[in-house]
Amino acid sequence: MSGFTNDAPLVAAFAKAHRIAVLTGAGVSAESGLSTFRGQGGIWQKFRAEELASMDGFLANPDIVWEWYNYRREVLSKAKPNPAHAALAEWESECEEFTVITQNVDGLHRAAGSMDVVELHGNITINRCLSCDQEMREQPTRWEGKVPLCSCGGRLRPGVVWFGEMLPEDAIMRAIHAAETCDMFISIGTSTVVYPAASLPMIAAEHGAYTVEVNPDETPFSRYANLIMREPAGEAVPRLHELWRKESMARNER
Ligand code: OAD
Predict the structure, then answer these.
(1) Which pLDDT value is given to residue 142?
(2) CB-ligand 1 contact for 30 (6 Å cutoff)
(3) E strands within 86-209?
């Protein structure tokens, strides 16, 4: 949808939006050069999720899993936040409450300056010890074959959530709270097929939030969204932010 600035209900919704929650997926980082998981050229078309993103896969072949995560870390080290990340960070600094809930492990929201970020699926730059459960942010120096080791001698794994694992409890609780209490919820660049993250836009809708979807393609959430922008995030999000800013300035002057 374009030309939405003339849409009176949307403008009214924007004028009232003080508490905004955003859910992002791989699509928000596509314009930073990072692959999405599903669809044309998606990661899960080339690699098997159960071998690379599950505890069974890791235990069966930790070297291959580590090679894959090191490759992704290297790609990520060259990636920069794009205009969608930048607009969200700026938006947060102007809004009463603004929470970015992300399924991404790439850290690009924080790199762009977002402060209130809920990382539902962890962060690829963190390692966790299989023996003592300690988290390590710095890169390990001790390796056994291709598997890095903790100072306790235990094997380290990437600090991301794999298939079949629970999400960090504080992260999912904060995400649900933001979805339940926001007055606008924006779903950006996610296929909304992986739960529990996929339930958040519906939770927001059920609690009365105005809902927006930014995605070039249709998703299961599309038919429930109040506004759909079938555009790349790097174009749509800065425009949404501009519209919100215009409406909130007009509201303050009234
Ligand atoms: P997906 O790859 O499933 O979906 C990405 C979505 O982004 C698709 O709906 C695309 O249409 C859309 N998209 C592509 N380019 C875009 C652009 N420039 N702007 C906006 N949208 C764009 O990624 P997620 O929904 O994030 O989990 O996947 C959810 C989870 O599944 C991931 O966190 C990961 C994966 O398996 C784990 O690894 C646990």
Answers:
(1) 80
(2) yes
(3) 97-102, 117-119, 122-129, 135-136, 143-144, 147-148, 156-160, 184-188
